[in-house]
Automatic annotation (TrEMBL):
This is Pyrrolo-quinoline quinone. Residues 164-174, 192-203 have a biased composition (Basic and acidic residues). Signal peptide: none annotated. Residues 28-112, 201-392 form the Pyrrolo-quinoline quinone repeat domain. Residues 160-204 are annotated as: Disordered. It comes from the Archaea. PANTHER family: CELL SURFACE PROTEIN, OUTER MEMBRANE PROTEIN ASSEMBLY FACTOR BAMB.
Amino acid sequence: MTEWNQYKGDSHNSGLRRDLEGPIRVGEAWTTDLAGAVGSPVLDRDTVYVGTTRGNCYAFEAETGRRRWTVETAAATDATPVRTRERLFLGAGDGTVYALDPATGEEQWHAELPGSLESALALSAGRLYAGHSAGLSALEAETGTQLWNHETESAVVGAPAIADGREGEQRRSALDWGQEETLESLEPSTLDADRRPDPEHRWGATQERVFAGTADGTVLALEAETGEECWTAPVGGTVAAGPTIADGRIYVGDDGGTMVALDAGTGESWFTYEIQAGFTTSATVLAAAETTFIGADDGYLHVTDTTVGRRKLRGWLFSRKGVELDGPIRTCPVVAGDVLCVGDATGSLYGVAVDDPEPLWRFAAEDAISGTPAIAAERLYVGSDGGQLYCLEWDAEEQLH
């Protein structure tokens, strides 16, 4: 199995494959035409799976692009599916979730959500999470049985993110339940005194939680096993593409131009970064490099630090927003090795060096890039509004010479 089996590669929505050699340049391996705008693909060892706005789900041979099977539904299926060893989970816009045989596309079970599907599916610890117009639901992955449903005042939008409670072990924060650190040892620049989480609300190291955003600008944290609310936090507008979990924090951008970093244990704010435009993607965080990337409709890939949300790039006189692209950002940033890949509304897909954020290459698709890329070893898969699924490739050994 590849590690890119769900939206942005994992249940944290991290968008990272730092273990791979990233593309310094790319070439087109194959392209295939589909019916409808293409969603974000997922992968296994030898197959690419993707849905479209026309309601079709496709499986393609990853190496050649040869079609293995097609499943047709009555509603859009461009929400990112989830692949496990036994099943492919597919969500349709009418609120139906399907479990398919990944080898044949045959249905194993289906389940009806309380509302229309509004987000990519997410999977962790045998539970499948789906955000919809009435809230957030958890299904048993084996059978499709609804485990719980948490109602919200507005639709849950963007992919949910799931954490097991150990994500903050490398950061000195109130999440460090299993370490000898104390709140008094926290650096003032990292966590202001008036925002220090209450020790009574520490997040246990084995406690699993699911985080989601809503259309009315709320971030919520729920107990993954029960759906019970742990905390909620307001943001400025509709959450874009869902939360990202990194190093004990939850990063969320909204269409009002606000990105916030919240303590995963308490929901307390660490920082706020604001722009005049609206954010269009989730954040992708390189915790070790203390760098956050997030796209916006002003055509910039914004680059900030992870401590106080300050711009990281410097110009001659002033700090720079980030990396300017050809148009509004359409895909969530994903990282292969030391190269970030991101697409925009003009149909351009870029490779950007993460250490010194500047474009390395640009690939021109026929239409606007519509789905977040899926990354494998020396391969990248991405769709367009015009119904094309592209496979781009590179030679890691050749790049080293």
